[in-house]
Amino acid sequence: MNRINALLRTDFDGRPVEDIDDVIDEAFDDPRHAERVPGLIALMNDPAAPEIERFLACLVLTTWAEPAGYEAVMRAAGDPERAPWYDFSIDRKFSVDSTFAQLAGAVADNRYLTEDKGSEALRQEAFRALVRIADSQYFEDKLGELFDSATLQILLSDIKDVVGRGVRSLAAGEKQRFDLVTQLVDLASGVSTVDGPLAVELAMSVLAVDAFPRALSHAVPIIHRAQGPEARRFGEFLLTVGDEDVHRQVHAALEAISA
After folding, report:
1. Is 91 in contact with 78 (CB distance < 8 Å)?
2. Beta bridge partners of 10
3. To which H or E segment does residue 195 belong?
4. Of 137, 190, 191, 230, which has the fewest Cβ atoms less than 10 A away?
5. Mean local confidence (pLDDT), 198-203
6. Stated pTM of the model
7. Do 51 and 85 form a contact (C-beta atoms < 8 A)?
8. 246 vs 140: CA distance, rounded Å
9. Element (H, E) at 13
10. Gap between the Cα atoms of 210 and 212, Å rounded
11. Is residue 10 classed as helix, strand or coil in its secondary structure?
């Protein structure tokens, strides 16, 4: 049996499984997953191993809140295009790397395990490393939903910085490999759960450079989340730049926060 089968296609009772997600999920209720960790670390760090196996090992370690997984995410984010698995998984919409989107989902997926393993601080730093590359790497529309409130509070300064860089890139007319406008709006939408005024400020700075229906639709949840006078001001702004469908969404959102 090769390493990947032994580590991820065999359950903790030694039975083969068809879907590695069964093993990944089982770990949340079975402490025996710790026995797989040294082997996964070795696989992840083996330059001779196939890139998909190295990536899966990193993904699993991160999902299991292992320090080695978070540290690997930070290394990869430090020099994204030199990550050993970069471009092995390609997004169909934009034909760009999608590994960072998957790693971000893994970082978000395991908060209660970090309490058991004492790795919450590393989890937050892994999120920080990912946020810092959100102006250059694609996250598959996930950045508006991944962050818990405590992590968002810690990352507000980093989010402001990356949105600012992204806006400057857009304003300069630099060629974009994916829909950066919507990705930055998604970040602002996430912020709206903890800081409505800042979320509106960030979203408006993006949409003032480029506003099109997809990005505007992604901006509408900010109205629900921010509420208050900032939400109404933002809704009025969206009405000035949106099409008929955006108008419908905005009116519904404004009615909801007035109810």
Report:
1. no
2. 16
3. none
4. 230
5. 97
6. 0.94
7. yes
8. 21
9. none
10. 7
11. strand
CB 203 within 8 A of CB 234: yes
Q: How large is the average pLDDT for residues 58-81? A: 97
In b/e form, how buried is each residue of 176-186, taking b as 16+ CB within 10 angstroms? bebbbbbbbbb
DSSP string, 150-176: HHHHHHHHHHHHHHHHHHHHHHTT---
Integer Rg of the chain from CA: 20
Distance CA 201, CA 209 (A): 13
Q: Is the pLDDT of residue 241 over 60?
A: yes
Percent of the chain topping pLDDT 90: 91
**For residues 117 and 65, what is the distance between their CA atoms, to the nearest angstrom?**
7
Q: Give the Cα separation of 9 and 147 in Å (integer).
A: 30
| Chain centre distance of CA 94 | 17
Decide if pLDDT at 82 tops 90: yes
Give yes or no for a contact between 192 and 221, defined as CB atoms under 8 angstroms apart.
yes
Token pair of 225 as six digits: 């989340």
Question: Where residue 110 falls among pLDDT bands split at 50, 70, 90?
Answer: confident
Reported as a single tens digit per residue, the pLDDT across 179-197 is 999 999 999 999 999 999 9
Task: State the Cα–Cα distance between residues 242 and 88, nearest whole angstrom.
Answer: 37
Cβ-proximal residues to 71 (8 Å cutoff; 6+ apart), any chain: 122
Q: How confident is the model at residue 109 (pLDDT cuts 50, 70, 90)?
A: confident
Q: What is the spatial distance between Cα 232 and Cα 239, in angstroms, rounded to a whole number?
A: 11
